[in-house]
Amino acid sequence: MRRDYFDLAVENIEWVRQDGDPEKPLVRIDFHGPEGLLEERLAGTGNEILTAQETDVAFRLQESPETNPSAIGVVGVTNRITGDFVLELNQEAENVLTFITAAREYGKSGDDDGQYRVEITVENDRLVTYEKSTFLVYDADGNLLRSDSLIPSGVELWTTRGKLANPSNLRYTDLRLIIWYPVLPLLFHERAFRSQFVTEVYVEKPEQSQR
Questions:
Q1: Per-residue pLDDT of the chain (211 residues; tens, 9 = 90+)
Q2: What pLDDT does residue 46 have?
Q3: What CA–CA distance (Å, rounded) separates 25 from 21?
Q4: Cβ proximity of 172 and 205 under 8 Å
Q5: Backbone angles phi, psi at 85, to 5 degrees
Q6: d(Cα 128, Cα 125) in Å, to the nearest integer?
């Protein structure tokens, strides 16, 4: 889907620069492309709109903001079940990283209903709202930048390179294996995963699932 079909605006982030009262950061993404296209991308099982738990949000830098203060990256929302992109659009790295900082600080307020909000609209008419707590950031080579990412305290990520020798040794319930090729997540159940040779694997689990 073309990136110029989307406009992005953020709210409630200035307080983090001004040491003000915490407000939940909001990112509003407006679609102005062909009718029905976005709804089709957002359709999940039974053609119902994907839930927050069925989507992932990530940002991939195209260059380092340390060497170029005006560095650009790509914000992507993906279908967690299929790995397909729902949407993607270009954004300045400084704006995205400031947004993530605000979300991280807001999380310290104790709100259990997500650390930031995503509103997706069609021609300014609201289509869906997500409460999210994870926002992963990758460099231009597809490596996870943990310190820049928003990773809630209840989630741990591990990485491995090459072939995972024995996935059955990962004794966790509700295990999700997330395989990132550049910024695209492909999801595999353990059985399918056994034969996969991958560059990098992120295993995500809630803390309470550990046995």
A1: 899 999 999 999 999 888 889 999 999 999 999 999 999 999 987 889 999 989 999 999 999 988 998 999 999 999 888 888 899 999 999 999 999 999 999 988 876 788 999 999 999 999 999 999 999 999 988 888 989 999 877 665 554 443 334 444 433 333 334 433 333 343 333 333 333 333 334 444 444 444 3
A2: 80
A3: 12
A4: yes
A5: -70, 135
A6: 9
Q: Between the CA of residue 77 and those of 50, 105, 191, 201, what are the distances in Å?
A: 11, 22, 26, 19
Distance CA 8, CA 198 (A): 33
Q: Tokens 């679609």 correspond to what residue?
A: 31
> How far apart, in whole angstroms, are the C-alpha atoms of residue 77 and residue 91?
13
DSSP result, 143-159:
-B-TTTSB--TTEEEEE
Element (H, E) at 93: helix 93-107
Note the pTM of the prediction, 2 decimals. Answer: 0.75
In single-letter form, the type of residue at position 43 comes to A
What is the rounded CA–CA span in Å between residue 114 and residue 8?
Answer: 20
SS3 state at 188? strand
Closest of 86, 61, 68 to residue 76, by C-alpha = 86
d(CA 209, CA 10): 34
Boundaries of every domain in the chain: 3-152, 154-211
Q: Helix (H, G, I), strand (E, B), or coil: what is residue 94?
A: helix
**Are 174 and 155 a contacting pair, CB within 8 Å?**
no
